[in-house]
Amino acid sequence: MTRDIEQRKRDHLNLAQEKALNFSISAGFDRWRFIHNALPEINLHEIDTHTTFLGKELQFPLLISSMSGGVEESFNLNANLATAAESVGCALGLGSIRAALENEKVRNSFLVARKNAPTAIIMANLGIAQIMGSQSMDKVSSFCSDLEANALIIHLNPLQEAFQSGGDTHFKGALNAIKTWVHEFPLPIIIKEVGQGLSLDVVARLEGIGVEIIDIAGAGGSNWISIEGERLAADQRVLKQSAHEFANWGEPTAEILENLETDQFVIASGGLKQPLDLAKALALGANMGGIAGPLLRHAMTGDVSGTIDQLLVWKKTLEMAMFGVGACTINELIGNRLLLRKID
Fold first, then answer.
1. Residue 328 CA to chain centroid, in angstroms?
2. How far apart are CA 97 and CA 95, in angstroms?
3. Please, which residues have CB within 8 angstroms of residue 55's CB and are 6 or more apart in sequence?
4. Which of 14, 93, 247, 304 has the greatest number of C-beta atoms within 10 Å?
5. Which residue has the higher pLDDT, 133 or 103?
6. Cα–Cα–Cα angle for 236, 242, 243, nearest 5°?
7. What digits encode the pLDDT tens for the residues 58-90?
8. How far apart are CA 221 and CA 270, in angstroms?
9. Rounded Cα distance, 217 and 319, in Å
10. Closest listed residue to residue 253, CA positions, set 190, 318, 197
11. How far apart are CA 110 and CA 117, in angstroms?
12. What is the SS3 string spanning the chain?
């Protein structure tokens, strides 16, 4: 089983770089434009992109979203991403820690993140199937303690599991399991999708059981149904062909934000492809943005300086967008839809 997980993680890292396996629909940010303010009445040096998350200060509200862990390749990937997060002052989400919980030999592919990012916000990550199944709360808590994690992400991925060879499709009782972990786990719990999005109904149900932080992870970036479909063997041709029908299944990220009303802390990931998308996501109501795909290739090849430069471009673009609309602080930008115009 461990070898199967390791091969799946290796396939995920390789296939996630294939643009053909991305959504052909956009996340929806291209339908929004900022209204230029020629009289911002602020000075550029006064722009402040700092924000607070999980009780710690970030240089700017960006999360390097969960990618992988548990295979040889992911040791260097997580090391590089952690170094970059520490350098630029953003948050880091790790891939699923399931492999580390089941195999002591791969623990270091996760623990290296804290070694390389001693002050950064780092979040562990585990699928809802593991929360409901074999992984005890004490065991997960112990590993999170070794990692010095600031929070635990629980990811929801029903259709990814359904199209995954040997996937776990037992989702009955998931909401109640989340409620238990929210109230009993020693770290903050973040609930996220993996790219099909959290609908308004699901967000409301999560808020109703006490979930305070969500990552909507909408459609528009990598499509994990398509990725799992690509991995299916030839003798699973019916399931493989069915996966093609779901190439654009999901809730686009910007559309979720446009209609979302919640008091939760909202992370917007899924299809943020251009640096200006981060500023748009914040203006649409997100508290933070998340990206993965735009960083994967640089981080996988060991180009740490290139990864850092990419992140700095996202930070600088956010700063310049704030100057361009006259928002001096992040709080002045978040949820300020008057700064945007929707393109029909």
1. 26
2. 6
3. none
4. 93
5. 103
6. 90
7. 999 999 998 876 666 788 899 999 999 999 999
8. 5
9. 24
10. 197
11. 12
12. CHHHHHHHHHHHHHHCCCHHHECCCCCCHHHEEECCCCCCCCCHHHCECCEEECCEEECCCEEECCCCCCCHHHHHHHHHHHHHHHHHCCEEECCCCHHHHHCHHHCHHHHHHHHHCCCCCEEEEEEHHHHHCCCCHHHHHHHHHHHCCCEEEEEECHHHHHCCCCCCCCCCCHHHHHHHHHHHCCCCEEEEECCCCCCHHHHHHHHHCCCCEEECCCECCECHHHHHHHHCCHHHHHHHHHHHCCCCCCCEHHHHHHHCCCCCEEEEECCCCCHHHHHHHHHCCCCEEEECHHHHHHHHCCCHHHHHHHHHHHHHHHHHHHHHHCCCEHHHHCCCHHHEEECC
Cβ atoms of residues 200 and 251 within 8 Å:
no
Residue 52 pLDDT > 90: yes
The pLDDT value given to residue 1: 43
Per-residue pLDDT tens digits for 286-341: 999 999 988 987 888 888 999 999 999 999 999 999 999 999 999 999 999 999 99
Q: At 119, give phi and psi (nearest 5°).
A: -115, -5
Phi-psi region of 28 (alpha: psi -120 to 50; beta: other; left: phi over 0): left
Integer Cα distance of 10 and 68 in angstroms = 9
In a 13 Å sphere around the CA of 318, the CA atoms on its Cβ side amount to 29
Residue type (1 letter), 324: G
Give the model confidence (pLDDT) of 17-50 as tens digits: 565 567 889 999 999 999 999 999 999 999 999 9
Q: Quick count: other Cβ atoms within 10 Å of Cβ 123?
A: 27
Residues 6+ apart with CB under 8 A from 241: none
Q: How far apart are CA 248 and CA 196, in angstroms?
A: 9
Task: Provide the CATH number for the domain formed by 2-342 in this structure.
Answer: 3.20.20.70
Please give the model's pTM, rounded to 2 decimal places: 0.94
CA distance 165 to 256: 30
